[in-house]
Prior knowledge:
It is built from 6 helices and 10 strands, in the order E-E-E-E-H-E-E-E-E-H-E-H-E-H-H-H. The chain is α+β, with helices and mostly antiparallel strands. The longest helix is centred in the middle third of the chain and has 9 residues, at about 110-120. The two termini are about 15 Å apart.
Amino acid sequence: MxxxxxxxYNNVVPESGKILIAEPFLNDYYFKRSIVLLIDHNDEGxxxxxxxxxxxxxxxxxxxxxxAFDAEMFLGGPVKKDSLFYLHRLGDKIDGSxxxxxxxxxxxxxxxxxxxxxxxxxxxxxxxxxxxxSGWEGQQLESELQRDSWLxxxxxxxxxxxxxxxxxxxxVLHKIGGKYAYWTQFPVDPNNN
Length: 193
């Protein structure tokens, strides 16, 4: 039965643009049944954001000094929870943004985002805001991967900013299929089995 939960990297190397999928019994407030998009991964460490943890609070309730914008905030991870981070589809429209994959960019000039919101040229489906991020020191993520805490995979850009994130963990595992699809059937608390 323990082999059922073995990941053994599934031959996908962690790198920018890949996702980390939490194994079903990872019991951590920030990472339980989470999908983490890796923004950067190198010998010095790893940096990413949790995609599927909506905070159930609106952007303007958390971020002052911005025009009204109908967007929900997400919890990106346990590090710097008082800081704002964002993924978007705006590419060259935002100076300093970093391409994560075709059609998905990270960060950039916040004043340009404010301007696009003010001019009503930005739709909430084109951007997602996060409080905090997820970080690992050098070799820490590799150690967690060897302990089968995460499955590394790809995710189409079209799913990254899609609404309905509460079922994202299940949707991604069903898409991968095989034994990973069965992970979705395990109870959140194994004591409730």
